[in-house]
């Protein structure tokens, strides 16, 4: 196409091979410890979206392990109960999901007061504008996929903790309102967002991760009363599987745009993989292809853990109006959402470890399929 700028694509580093199943399972504890330490090292002090992603993932890991509270989550949330954060954007709702998880274990008036403050902002703040179909806007005039995770995970968990079906219903309705605006009818993929009421057809990887994670949680919670979320989510994940490269990690735009080809984005793969594993576990017999995609995405993403950080994670990304815009977002430093989505991938792998629908991992206590995994993570695909 005339005018394409392939500079970023041509300079992209080659992809790594995915971790072998047995290599991942043997190193899962070390990966979790490393990514947790890296998240803490980046600082989880703000009441904002990157911190919220990491804290919710840590809360999931603690629930999966022993049902208790994760000490890192407690340490970083409780100071905000003594001095409430300023709430001025939908991204400020994200840590509320982990806050709600703390309220599952015991009553805590100060934590409850902070939870209610978030609900009040969502319901009545002048910044919480809505699109004509009711979708909570990320910015006035713009509906973004990010919002379904940042607000939706909070609403779902707050509704469960408070036993308020209206909040769970709002989480569901927000997911569907966003899907109505952002899901491409032909492909099933989700666009990043809208600009001045128009959907921009850039199918950003992390947008698809946010949508998929929130959707899988709503289906698992029984909130999908009509089955529409499951139907839309299945179409999305099936489409993502059809575009998945052999190494498991999609480009920053997941549909093979020439200008972003080879510009990989690992946090999206980690989040999509986690969602796919959870969604497939709800119907093991009917979602084997989605399961296989999820496993490959997790193995592919976690191959990029270096030291304490998930690498090749794109920085915070505002809506871009053309594909090339996504090819120049920096990905050369650690990000809290990358740590969190890497931990989400680990949590989902643990949660579904004994899923009878698993199609590639070995049975517990038996050797892996080593013939398929003769290479190590240091090798690169050419």
Topology:
Blueprint: H1 7-11, H2 21-42, H3 49-65, H4 71-82, H5 95-102, H6 109-124, H7 146-150, H8 152-162, H9 165-182, E1 194-195, E2 198-199, H10 205-220, H11 228-243, H12 266-281, H13 288-302, E3 305-306, E4 309-310, H14 324-327, H15 336-351
Antiparallel strand pairs: 1-2, 3-4
Protein name: Unsaturated rhamnogalacturonyl hydrolase
Biased composition (Basic and acidic residues): 370-382
GO molecular function: hydrolase activity
Describe the protein.
The chain is mostly helical and 382 residues long. It has a single domain (18-353), classed as Glycosyltransferase (Alpha/alpha barrel), CATH 1.50.10. It is 52% helix and 2% strand. The chain has 15 helices and 4 strands. A hairpin with a 2-residue loop joins strand 3 (305-306) and strand 4 (309-310). Helix 5 (95-102) packs antiparallel against helix 6, helix 10 (205-220) runs antiparallel to helix 11 and helix 11 packs across helix 13. The chain is globular. Mean pLDDT is 93; it is low at 362-382. This is Unsaturated rhamnogalacturonyl hydrolase.
List key phrases describing it.
mainly alpha, 382 residues, hydrolase activity, two-stranded antiparallel sheet, Glycosyltransferase, 2% strand, Unsaturated rhamnogalacturonyl hydrolase, 6-hairpin_glycosidase_sf, PolySaccharide_Degr_Enz, disordered C terminus, 52% helix, 4 strands
Largest sheet: 2 strands, antiparallel
SSE succession: HHHHHHHHHEEHHHHEEHH
Q: Termini distance?
A: 25 Å
Overall radius of gyration: 19 Å
Name the strands of the widest sheet in spatial order.
1-2
Number of strands: 4
Q: What is the averaged pLDDT score?
A: 93
Poorly predicted residue ranges: 362-382
GO molecular function: hydrolase activity
Keywords: Hydrolase
Pfam family, one: Glyco_hydro_88
Region (Disordered): 352-382
């Amino acid at each position: 196409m005339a005018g394409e700028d392939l500079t970023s694509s041509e300079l992209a580093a080659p992809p790594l091979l995915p971790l072998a199943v047995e290599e991942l399972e043997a190193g899962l504890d070390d990966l979790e410890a490393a990514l947790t330490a890296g998240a803490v090292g980046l600082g989880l002090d703000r009441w904002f979206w990157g911190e919220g992603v990491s804290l919710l993932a840590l809360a999931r890991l603690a629930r999966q392990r022993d049902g208790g509270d994760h000490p890192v989550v407690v340490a970083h949330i409780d100071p905000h109960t003594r001095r409430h954060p300023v709430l001025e954007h939908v991204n400020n709702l994200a840590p509320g999901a982990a806050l709600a998880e703390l309220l599952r274990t015991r009553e805590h008036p100060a934590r409850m007061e902070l939870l209610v403050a978030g609900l009040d902002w969502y319901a009545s703040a002048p910044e919480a504008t809505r699109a004509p179909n009711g979708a909570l806007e990320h910015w006035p005039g713009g509906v973004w996929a990010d919002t379904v995770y940042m607000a939706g995970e909070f609403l779902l968990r707050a509704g469960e903790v408070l036993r308020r079906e209206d909040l769970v219903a709002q989480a569901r309705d927000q997911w569907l309102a966003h899907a109505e605006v952002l899901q491409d009818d032909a492909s099933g993929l989700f666009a990043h967002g809208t600009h001045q009421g128009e959907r921009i057809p850039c199918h950003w990887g992390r947008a698809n991760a946010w949508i998929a994670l929130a959707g899988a949680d709503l289906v698992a919670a029984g909130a999908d009363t009509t089955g529409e979320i499951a139907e839309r989510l299945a179409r999305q994940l099936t489409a993502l599987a059809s575009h998945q490269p052999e190494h498991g990690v999609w480009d920053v735009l997941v549909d093979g745009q020439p200008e972003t080809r080879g510009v990989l984005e690992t946090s999206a793969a980690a989040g999509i993989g986690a969602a796919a594993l959870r969604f497939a576990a709800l119907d093991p017999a009917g979602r084997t292809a989605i399961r296989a995609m999820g496993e490959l995405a997790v193995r592919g993403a976690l191959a990029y853990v270096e030291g304490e950080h998930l690498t090749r994670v794109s920085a915070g990304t505002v809506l871009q109006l053309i594909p090339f815009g996504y090819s120049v977002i920096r990905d050369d430093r650690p990000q809290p959402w990358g740590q969190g989505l890497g931990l989400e991938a680990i949590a989902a792998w643990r949660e579904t470890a004994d899923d009878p629908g698993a199609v590639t991992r070995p049975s517990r206590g038996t050797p892996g399929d080593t013939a398929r995994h003769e290479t190590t993570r240091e090798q690169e695909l050419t």
